[in-house]
Amino acid sequence: MKKIFKLINAEFKKNKKLYVFISILLVIGFLAGTLFITILSSQDKKLIEETISNFFLQIKNNNIDLIYTFRTSLTTNLVYVLLMFFLGISIIGIPIIVFLIFIKSFVLGFSIVSIIFKYKLGGTLLSLGYIFPHQILNLIIISFIGLYALKVSITLIKLIFSKKQVNFKLIIKKYFVVLILCVILSLISSTLETFLCTNIIKLFSFLIK
Hints:
8 helices; elongated; single chain; mainly alpha
């Protein structure tokens, strides 16, 4: 156990700047998402309210196809992870990786505020059911794969311009391990979203109208 903590601590120190950058990016994206609803027109707000209402009513009335929901969730998560993985081994992938991390936290912030906007105080409880725990896990997954994708991209750029000797095989090996881990976590996240999140929301179904 001590060895694991030492490895995590060493990895954090080694990539401290990237960790800080991604953390700031997530915060900015989340705040931007929470503020975005304030600039929408009344018609757009009404459309969002209807979409949210339909989503929660389907869960309340047990009109959710769990198998379809699971497949859709898992496909979305895996596409996101694989896209970031392949962007990491391309030199031009850095700005897109940054954008994908930003947009993930932006959508989360926007979703939470939209739910609260629709259901007022009760929306706080519903939003907790919506984000916990799968959305938190999704952010961790995206941050993790994003960190290593940026790291690999930066290493590739350094290889091209500085021509330093780097054990690139070892880097790619670690990168594949990160990919496998993120795929497993995505599977867990989709399972939680489908079978746990829906039941948590049902607990607060009295708030849904």
